[in-house]
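Hi C.,

You asked whether I'd gotten around to modeling the 510-residue construct. I have! Everything is below, sequence then structure, no commentary in between.
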Amino acid sequence: MAETNKKKKAVPTIKVSQWLKDWDQVQFSPTDHRRKPEPHFYIFSLPASEMRSLCGISRRSTSKLQARAADMGIQREHDRERSDEIGRYVEFGYPWSTLSEAKRKTEEFHDLRKPGWLPTSIVINIIPQGEARRGTVLGAGDAVSIEHSAGMAKLILPYEDWSKDWKPDSVPPFEVIDGQHRLWAFGEGADADFELPVVAFYGLDVSWQAYLFWTINIKPKRINPSLAFDLYPLLRGEDWLDRAEGHPVYRETRAQELTEALWSHPSSPWYDRINMLGERQAEGVTQAAWIRSLMATFVKPWQGRGSKIGGLFGSRMSDDNEVLGWSRAQQAAFLIYAWSEFRSAVLDASDEWAQQLSTIAIRDDKVGSKEGVDARFYGQYSLIATDQGVRGFLHVLNDICFYLAPKLDLRSWRPDNSAAASDVNAVALALTSYKKHSSAKTVIAISKALAGFDWRTSSAPDIDAETRRRKLVFRGSSGYKEIRVQLLEHIAKEDSDLGRAALRVQREVA
């Protein structure tokens, strides 16, 4: 080991011991990504450009595999504007950094230039050799080790001399817990003498990393809690946070944001068709009902003891026990796409129920053929336009996609944009991007299969008594469970991969 390290760069570090005996009583759990941490961390400094490469932060012009390797671990979202602002601050401090580009180019404001110090530490985790991130193992040639002797410590880096061309062959050995926007502020040609202070943990499990991020950024009220769940998606599945802060911190807020996106985005089938104010005489399912349905499906943290079906946007995945790191715009785009495909499938359906609802609408309301076909989806006799119908579709879409998530490779969908669900342009870009993803075919298949279900309500005219009795079970709060069960049974009848998936999901939620 000593002979090998002569050819590698060594960085002096300060070892900081922080551990109380009472902490031994904390419930540590490797299976929950909370293995017992080391009783110390380290403090050192490195040039910003060198830190960027060790953290795998590079421009997104790399191949798919390299891009995923560079976004290891926590899948934090990057706000370019924030990094650009920090970059301007570093150049000549405040308030010069807040001036317009035109003003910065004139000599009139040169007296406002100041040093742009960054004394606050970047907080990172050093990944031990042999650990994996997103299925890729950190190789020996990329690993960073720590040597201790006589109360001192040295960080042994994976090269003798750093160069801007250095890249890991496997996994970046550092992962950023806090401070990624400061690192992004430095471009490829960053000044080699500009160093950043670093606080480094070694082998810190990912759940503890999320915990550190929360306590650094949220407890002091530094950033919006809702935004934190996009920056650090793992927080969505943390039981300690759910118990301490209550469900509104993520689930209720996110469900409201997604409901607003479905109501306000021009590409949504529910554009201006959700009763946002809960008015008694207004048409459409109420905003409150949509929020409850999303909280019960896509943003629920878990289904219950013994069940493996959770919320696609709020639960840990079965393949690696981490949550899906989609942004708010991605989540909104996925729902809009799924509902759009379902609407198209319903309007194209030739089943008896669909034909009958169109005929009733044309006959009773004296509308044209287009409005008659729309009645299949939006009409007063269509279950789709009811609280139970909305919940049923969301349940089945979530259940099957959550169950198939590892096969669908949902994490590979990363549109080159990050913004709120209410940002129309961001959602539109994500929507365009998702249509090209391989999992879109599964969403289309689910939509077509569900279009074959009989979506008539019990009050629909011209249906026989037996059918009416079967429809009555969808009324009331018990109707949510019943429609979920019947929809899954309907898809499970298909002799296909989708049918078999629905059958397995049936067993999970039974």
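If it helps when you're writing up: The chain has 20 helices and nine strands.

Thanks,
B.
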